[in-house]
Amino acid sequence: MGILSIVLQLILSLSILVVLHECGHFFPAKWFKTRVEKFYLFFNPYFSLFKVQKGETEYGIGWVPFGGYVKISGMIDESMDTEQMAGEPQPWEFRSKPAWQRLIIMVGGVVVNFILGFLIFAGMLWHWGESYVPSSNVSQGIYVTDSLGYELGLQNGDQITQVGEVPFEKFNPGAFNMGIIINDARSYKVIRDGKEIELPIGEQYTKILTKKYKKKTLFRARYPQKVVEVKKESPASKAGLQVDDVIVNVNNVETPSFVEMSLEVRKYKDQEIPLTVKRNGQLIPINITPDENGSIGIINAAMTDFYEPTIVKYGFLESFPAGVNKGVGFLKDQLKAFGQIADDRIDATDSLGSIVSIARMFDKGWDWQRFWQITAMLSILLGFFNILPIPALDGGYVMFLLYEIISGRKPSDKFMEYATLFGFILMIGLMIFALGLDVTNIFKGN
């Protein structure tokens, strides 16, 4: 069910993005009385799952469940239909329209993607608001979960206050990594033993974190342990653990926080070990045998049960500028990442991803908040990549149209044919390369 859920979310998200992107081309074309021959969700080589003719346009759904297109008369596109270009230009064709109209038709899809991303972010802020735990509330500090964290100088109990020049106001382990990768932070500050100290970050860690830690964190919040659920037929159930129990030590090792308790238990797979449990103010010894995964079958109280979160609510009108700010902030981070690649601080191969990478972003249980967040980010990324001046992308057509408007000279149909073919081959090559990287990472266990 987890894989099916991910696949369905991926298809739904891409369907929304593709249909609305293509509407951004379709409606301007109609407004300027340009014939649209086909409007398709997904690609349909050889046959279609569904199609219907309405007026001059064929609407359909292809069988390759990614992408989509509108086929506009008199335009060289990925279909490479050059026969229509052999005849004399007709009034309803794309090539017969003034350059400014063709420009509006081409940028329409990108504009829709940016607006959609901003609107989704706005809708999320209006519906759910923003919830986060202030770093100052995490009184027990952090627990370092990776050797690289220790290498960077982090210690258990540290309270992070700043990464580079950016205050670490919201507790978010991923933001620590991104501060180094995206913002090129060269130091961070922590409160340790009551004193604030500053620790350096070497330049090499930008590439190290990009390569191995895109989906990993170096630390977690330390917060108390308390059982809120005991799973049936689990080691915990058989050992007699109860709701509200607090495990204070594991095999005579003190465990003041949940993360320390769980990591300590994980060391003893299929081995009987003693626990000390605090129940109703009394200490009770219990023997337990973690399963083959090092789990004992309990659900712990959430971090927010111990550290009060801050919840920011947005009114309907307030949500729109906040959504734009969130979308623009996300886009700025992506541009910074490209800057890091250009400066060779990040390897491009560590940042490339195919449809597999996109699928792995979704939640196995279908979390709507996460679904819409990913869809918003993908919409903005789709708009950004599509406007790049690469032939076969919207940005390639825009580049040639701007040249035509400025110079007064229109590129020949033959030139556009070769340029589009080159861009199409380039895009296919990049997609195959990115897919290969994803497959390799899966086999490596990344």
Structure description:
The protein is built from 13 helices and 16 strands. The two termini are 22 Å apart. Helix 8 (316-342) packs across helix 11. The chain has a four-stranded antiparallel beta sheet, with helices on one face. A four-stranded antiparallel beta sheet has the order 12-11-13-14. It has a two-stranded antiparallel sheet with strand order 1-2. The chain is elongated and about 90 Å long. With 446 residues, the protein is α+β, with helices and mostly antiparallel strands. It folds into three domains: 2-126 and 372-444, no CATH class; 135-220, Pdz3 Domain; 227-300, Pdz3 Domain, CATH 2.30.42.10. Helices cover 44% and strands 21% of the residues. It has helices at residues 2-31, 99-127, 147-151, 173-181, 204-212, 235-239, 258-265, 316-342, 348-351, 355-359, 368-386, 394-407, 413-444; strands at residues 36-54, 57-72, 130-132, 142-144, 159-163, 166-167, 187-192, 195-200, 219-221, 227-230, 246-250, 253-254, 273-279, 282-288, 298-300, 310-312.
What structural class do the secondary elements suggest? alpha+beta
Q: Give the strand line-up of the largest sheet.
A: 6-5-7-8
Largest sheet: 4 strands, antiparallel
**% residues in beta strands:** 15-25%
